[in-house]
Amino acid sequence: MFEPGGPVLVRWRPALRVLAVALPLLTCALLALVRDQLTAASSVLVLVVWVVAAAATGDRVSGVLAAVSGALWFDFFLTEPYLRFTISASDDIETTVLLVVISLAVSETALWGHRQQAEAARRSGYLDGVLGAARSVAEGDVAAGAVVALVAQNITTVLDADTTRYVLGPVRDARIWVLDHDGALTRDGRSHDVDRAGLPTDEYVAVPVRRDAQTLGHFLVTATSHVSYPSRERRRVAVLLADQVGAAPRGGP
């Protein structure tokens, strides 16, 4: 089984958001002790570090909170009049605005990098799933039922579905949508736009298992608890996984 990469665990988000607000506050309070020896630019750079750290968790809200908190406490502790949320000098106003803009820009850049890293991890996971199933088939020392169970589990993961089970024979129910090798979802000559509408939540999706021109069976996928939007690439991976069952030695599924 493989798990796609994802954002920071939900259970840690409240703590991260509290830290995103508290750390800029503590930092500005400490910098206020030596503010006569620091330039505004130096203080801004220190605060941007916390924004980057918050955004690197993958939680956009934490990044925004760190940016806003940094700007507020920079104003309170490091601009005249001190210890008031008031700015008297135009240069300080400009610095505070720049702090917010730079922090938000850096936060979005960090989040973009986090998304790219997560997507790379997902791609690697999908490939591992296909290779794992192919290796099980090639080695021939794994029971056919175990290969089917492995593939069903991986199809469920890659399509972000609820359940997947194997059914012998071709699809005979006209109400079932069929996933093609190109990632298209069709039924009775009609196509379903998965990218826009997601997988059907009230109908089955079949991933056929073929050997040469013969359809041996199909994986029946359900996604009823939520709307899933697997990309075309992920849908094609699901078909490739099913192909591994079709490639199993005769006498298998």
Structural commentary:
- This protein is an alpha+beta fold and 253 residues long.
- It folds into two domains: 10-117, no CATH class; 142-246, no CATH class.
- Helices cover 55% and strands 12% of the residues.
- It is built from seven helices and six strands; from the N terminus they run H-H-H-H-H-E-E-E-E-H-E-E-H.
- It has helices at residues 13-31, 40-55, 60-78, 90-139, 144-158, 194-197, 232-246, and strands spanning 163-168, 177-179, 185-187, 190-192, 205-211, 214-222.
- Strands 1-6-5-2-3-4 form a six-stranded mixed β-sheet, covered by helices on one side.
- A hairpin with a 2-residue loop joins strand 5 (205-211) and strand 6 (214-222).
- The radius of gyration is 26 Å and the shape is elongated.
- 33% of the residues are buried.
- Mean pLDDT is 82; it is low at 1-8.
Task: Describe the protein's topology.
Elements: H1 13-31, H2 40-55, H3 60-78, H4 90-139, H5 144-158, E1 163-168, E2 177-179, E3 185-187, E4 190-192, H6 194-197, E5 205-211, E6 214-222, H7 232-246
Biggest sheet: strand arrangement: 1-6-5-2-3-4
Overall radius of gyration = 26 Å
Q: Helix-strand pattern, N to C?
A: HHHHHEEEEHEEH
Distance between the termini: 20 Å
- Strand content is 5-15%
Kindly name the structural category: alpha+beta
Tell me the count of domains: 2
Q: Quick check: average pLDDT?
A: 82
Tertiary shape: elongated
- For the secondary structure, the number of strands is 6
The biggest beta sheet reads: 6 strands, mixed
Helix content: 40-55%
Q: Provide a count of the helices.
A: 7
Residue stretches low in confidence (pLDDT < 50, at least 5 long) are 1-8
